[in-house]
UniProtKB/TrEMBL annotation:
It comes from the Bacteria. This is Nicotinamide-nucleotide amidohydrolase family protein. InterPro entries: CinA-like_C (IPR036653), CinA_C (IPR008136). It holds the Pfam family CinA. Residues 11-164 form the CinA C-terminal domain. Gene3D superfamilies: CinA-like. It comes from Cryobacterium breve.
Protein backbone atom coordinates (compact mmCIF):
# COMPACT_ATOMS: atom_id res chain seq x y z
CA UNK A 1 0.00 0.00 0.00
CA UNK A 2 1.12 3.53 -0.58
CA UNK A 3 1.08 6.34 1.92
CA UNK A 4 -1.84 8.13 0.26
CA UNK A 5 -4.35 9.21 2.93
CA UNK A 6 -7.64 7.36 2.84
CA UNK A 7 -10.69 9.63 3.26
CA UNK A 8 -13.32 9.07 5.95
CA UNK A 9 -15.77 7.60 3.43
CA UNK A 10 -13.23 5.91 1.21
CA UNK A 11 -15.93 4.19 -0.84
CA UNK A 12 -17.62 7.46 -1.81
CA UNK A 13 -14.26 8.96 -2.66
CA UNK A 14 -13.31 5.87 -4.66
CA UNK A 15 -16.51 6.01 -6.72
CA UNK A 16 -16.00 9.77 -7.25
CA UNK A 17 -12.38 9.23 -8.36
CA UNK A 18 -13.30 6.38 -10.70
CA UNK A 19 -16.02 8.58 -12.20
CA UNK A 20 -13.71 11.59 -12.55
CA UNK A 21 -11.13 9.45 -14.28
CA UNK A 22 -13.67 7.54 -16.41
CA UNK A 23 -12.44 4.21 -15.04
CA UNK A 24 -14.53 1.08 -14.57
CA UNK A 25 -14.16 -1.65 -11.99
CA UNK A 26 -15.17 -5.31 -11.79
CA UNK A 27 -15.16 -7.36 -8.59
CA UNK A 28 -14.48 -11.07 -7.92
CA UNK A 29 -15.30 -12.22 -4.41
CA UNK A 30 -14.91 -15.32 -2.35
CA UNK A 31 -14.72 -14.77 1.42
CA UNK A 32 -16.51 -11.42 1.21
CA UNK A 33 -19.50 -13.07 -0.46
CA UNK A 34 -20.73 -9.99 -2.33
CA UNK A 35 -19.93 -7.54 0.45
CA UNK A 36 -17.38 -5.61 -1.59
CA UNK A 37 -19.72 -5.19 -4.54
CA UNK A 38 -22.50 -4.16 -2.17
CA UNK A 39 -20.20 -1.60 -0.56
CA UNK A 40 -19.32 -0.09 -3.94
CA UNK A 41 -22.89 0.13 -5.18
CA UNK A 42 -24.20 1.68 -1.96
CA UNK A 43 -22.88 4.97 -3.41
CA UNK A 44 -25.36 6.78 -5.70
CA UNK A 45 -24.03 6.93 -9.24
CA UNK A 46 -21.87 3.81 -8.88
CA UNK A 47 -23.53 2.27 -11.93
CA UNK A 48 -21.41 4.56 -14.11
CA UNK A 49 -18.20 2.85 -12.98
CA UNK A 50 -19.05 -0.54 -11.44
CA UNK A 51 -19.39 -3.17 -14.16
CA UNK A 52 -20.49 -5.82 -11.68
CA UNK A 53 -19.37 -8.52 -9.33
CA UNK A 54 -18.98 -12.28 -9.29
CA UNK A 55 -19.23 -14.31 -6.09
CA UNK A 56 -17.23 -17.47 -6.72
CA UNK A 57 -17.42 -19.01 -3.28
CA UNK A 58 -16.84 -22.59 -4.37
CA UNK A 59 -13.33 -23.40 -5.57
CA UNK A 60 -14.44 -24.85 -8.93
CA UNK A 61 -16.26 -21.62 -9.79
CA UNK A 62 -13.00 -19.69 -9.49
CA UNK A 63 -11.90 -21.67 -12.54
CA UNK A 64 -15.14 -21.88 -14.52
CA UNK A 65 -16.31 -18.29 -13.96
CA UNK A 66 -13.04 -16.41 -13.54
CA UNK A 67 -10.47 -18.46 -15.42
CA UNK A 68 -8.23 -19.36 -12.47
CA UNK A 69 -5.80 -22.11 -13.47
CA UNK A 70 -7.16 -25.44 -12.15
CA UNK A 71 -3.61 -26.72 -11.56
CA UNK A 72 -3.00 -23.74 -9.26
CA UNK A 73 -6.21 -24.48 -7.37
CA UNK A 74 -5.32 -28.18 -7.10
CA UNK A 75 -1.82 -27.43 -5.84
CA UNK A 76 -2.55 -24.62 -3.38
CA UNK A 77 -6.28 -24.35 -2.89
CA UNK A 78 -8.35 -21.18 -3.20
CA UNK A 79 -6.46 -19.13 -0.59
CA UNK A 80 -3.26 -18.18 -2.40
CA UNK A 81 -1.82 -14.93 -3.77
CA UNK A 82 -1.80 -16.15 -7.37
CA UNK A 83 -5.44 -17.22 -7.08
CA UNK A 84 -6.31 -13.64 -6.06
CA UNK A 85 -4.29 -12.29 -8.99
CA UNK A 86 -5.99 -14.61 -11.49
CA UNK A 87 -9.43 -13.83 -10.06
CA UNK A 88 -8.81 -10.10 -10.48
CA UNK A 89 -7.46 -10.50 -14.00
CA UNK A 90 -10.28 -12.85 -14.95
CA UNK A 91 -13.10 -10.66 -13.69
CA UNK A 92 -11.80 -7.69 -15.71
CA UNK A 93 -12.41 -9.56 -18.94
CA UNK A 94 -15.40 -11.68 -17.86
CA UNK A 95 -17.35 -8.54 -16.91
CA UNK A 96 -16.51 -6.57 -20.04
CA UNK A 97 -19.13 -4.08 -21.22
CA UNK A 98 -19.57 -3.62 -24.98
CA UNK A 99 -16.43 -5.71 -25.47
CA UNK A 100 -14.35 -3.43 -23.25
CA UNK A 101 -12.81 -5.06 -20.16
CA UNK A 102 -13.11 -3.21 -16.88
CA UNK A 103 -10.16 -0.91 -16.26
CA UNK A 104 -9.59 -2.39 -12.80
CA UNK A 105 -10.26 -5.86 -11.45
CA UNK A 106 -10.27 -6.46 -7.72
CA UNK A 107 -10.61 -9.80 -5.96
CA UNK A 108 -10.89 -11.15 -2.42
CA UNK A 109 -9.98 -14.65 -1.27
CA UNK A 110 -9.11 -15.89 2.17
CA UNK A 111 -10.29 -17.55 5.34
CA UNK A 112 -12.89 -15.74 7.43
CA UNK A 113 -13.20 -18.55 9.96
CA UNK A 114 -14.09 -19.72 12.40
CA UNK A 115 -12.06 -22.73 11.25
CA UNK A 116 -8.87 -23.06 9.22
CA UNK A 117 -9.21 -23.96 5.54
CA UNK A 118 -6.64 -25.86 3.52
CA UNK A 119 -3.98 -25.28 6.16
CA UNK A 120 -4.65 -21.51 6.26
CA UNK A 121 -5.75 -19.92 9.52
CA UNK A 122 -8.66 -17.48 9.81
CA UNK A 123 -7.56 -13.95 8.95
CA UNK A 124 -5.29 -14.95 6.05
CA UNK A 125 -6.59 -12.94 3.10
CA UNK A 126 -5.26 -12.09 -0.33
CA UNK A 127 -6.54 -9.18 -2.37
CA UNK A 128 -5.95 -9.27 -6.11
CA UNK A 129 -5.66 -6.17 -8.26
CA UNK A 130 -5.44 -6.12 -12.04
CA UNK A 131 -5.12 -3.49 -14.72
CA UNK A 132 -4.31 -3.95 -18.36
CA UNK A 133 -0.96 -5.72 -18.54
CA UNK A 134 -0.35 -5.97 -14.79
CA UNK A 135 -1.75 -7.81 -11.80
CA UNK A 136 -0.56 -8.34 -8.25
CA UNK A 137 -1.70 -9.50 -4.84
CA UNK A 138 -1.76 -7.86 -1.43
CA UNK A 139 -1.45 -10.23 1.53
CA UNK A 140 -3.38 -9.38 4.68
CA UNK A 141 -3.37 -10.88 8.15
CA UNK A 142 -6.58 -9.80 9.86
CA UNK A 143 -7.88 -10.38 13.37
CA UNK A 144 -11.34 -10.82 14.76
CA UNK A 145 -14.33 -13.03 14.25
CA UNK A 146 -15.76 -14.02 10.88
CA UNK A 147 -17.76 -10.81 10.46
CA UNK A 148 -14.80 -8.61 11.42
CA UNK A 149 -12.45 -10.39 8.99
CA UNK A 150 -14.95 -10.05 6.15
CA UNK A 151 -15.61 -6.37 6.93
CA UNK A 152 -11.89 -5.61 7.18
CA UNK A 153 -11.31 -7.38 3.85
CA UNK A 154 -13.90 -5.15 2.17
CA UNK A 155 -12.40 -2.01 3.73
CA UNK A 156 -8.86 -3.00 2.74
CA UNK A 157 -9.96 -3.73 -0.84
CA UNK A 158 -11.60 -0.29 -1.13
CA UNK A 159 -8.46 1.32 0.25
CA UNK A 160 -6.20 -0.65 -2.10
CA UNK A 161 -8.12 0.45 -5.21
CA UNK A 162 -8.36 4.03 -3.95
CA UNK A 163 -4.62 4.15 -3.35
CA UNK A 164 -3.93 2.56 -6.75
CA UNK A 165 -5.75 5.27 -8.66
CA UNK A 166 -4.84 8.16 -6.31
CA UNK A 167 -1.17 7.78 -7.11
CA UNK A 168 -1.73 8.07 -10.86
CA UNK A 169 -1.97 11.43 -12.62
CA UNK A 170 -5.36 12.40 -14.00
CA UNK A 171 -5.36 12.27 -17.78
Amino acid sequence: MTDQPVPADATAELIAELTRRSLTIAVAESLTGGGLTAELIRIPGASVVVNGGVVAYQTDLKHTLLGVDPALLDAYGPVHPQVAVQMAAGVRTRLAVDGRPADIGVATTGVAGPDAQGGQEPGIVFLGLARQGEAWSIPLILNGDRAAIRAASVAQAVQAVYQLIAREPVE
